[in-house]
Amino acid sequence: MAAPTSQLNPQATPFLPGIASLPSLPDAALTSTLDLLFEPSPQLHALALPTLRTLSFGSYADLIATLRDELLAIAAAVSGPRADPDATPDARRPLHAILASHPRLGPAKPPTPHADHDDNEEEEEEELSAQSAAEQAQLRGGDPADAQRLAALNDEYEAAFPGLRYVVFVNGRSRDVIMADMRRRIDRADPQAEEREAIQAMCDIAADRAARLQKSSLEAAELGASA
pLDDT tens across 5-62, in order? Predict the structure, then answer.
């Protein structure tokens, strides 16, 4: 069960503010909250900040569901059979940037510096957040041959769906199960379905993070009360 917002403890790190407080928080606090739930993304900040400012939510689950619906509406508007006929390929870029903010599964892609980028910038693109590192822990070790297979599938996926990155709610599943799902989605060859599935996965991840962060805050509050 999610912790009541009144019991969320800023002493717990990382910390989600009370859901009712979001409309009154400064932009920096709102973007930090979004980064905890999703991954750092200026495009998501631009989409979500007006929503957080103008709507009230009863829970983080409600907030995440609202953002999911907004992203699905954008996907429907820029690609697929019901897309706006005036939409250009560039119209998909903000959505794809949001989805690609999640890191690759498994070992990071080796950096390939370009003349107009320095090595540090390239490395930062593959750096994992604390949440992603924990979620992917079982995918980043083990048999090197399996790691190579996973890296090859990542490459194949990104070639099949330019601008997208494979996003899935790992939820403790093994590398073999994840690779089978990657193969299924590559073979399906449906970019619009990939956008929808990636949006749902991203929001499933966010909901799981919210529940874990709220549980951590509640435990910290209870520990403080008993001290």
Answer: 334 444 446 889 999 999 999 999 999 999 999 999 999 999 999 999 999 999 999 9
Q: Which residue has the tokens 């593959």?
A: 126
Q: What is the pLDDT of residues 171-182, one digit of tens each?
A: 888 889 999 999
Task: Supply the pTM of this predicted model.
Answer: 0.81
Tell me which residue of 114, 112, 109, 188 sits closest to 152, measured CA to CA: 109
Integer Cα distance of 125 and 108 in angstroms? 10
| DSSP code string of the chain | -PPPGGG--TTSSS-PPPGGGGGGS-HHHHHHHHHHHS---HHHHHHHHHHHHH---SSHHHHHHHHHHHHHHHHHHHSSTTS-TT--GGGGHHHHHHHTTSPPSSSPPPP---TTS-HHHHHHHTPPPHHHHHHTGGGSSS-HHHHHHHHHHHHHHHHHSTT-------TT--HHHHHHHHHHHHHH--HHHHHHHHHHHHHHHHHHHHHHHHHHHHHHHHHHHH-
C-beta atoms surrounding 227 within 10 Å: 5
CA 171 centroid distance within chain: 13
Here the tokens at position 113 are: 């510096």
As a whole number of angstroms, the distance between CA 209 and CA 207 comes to: 5
CA proximity to 103, closest of 133, 75, 67, 72: 133
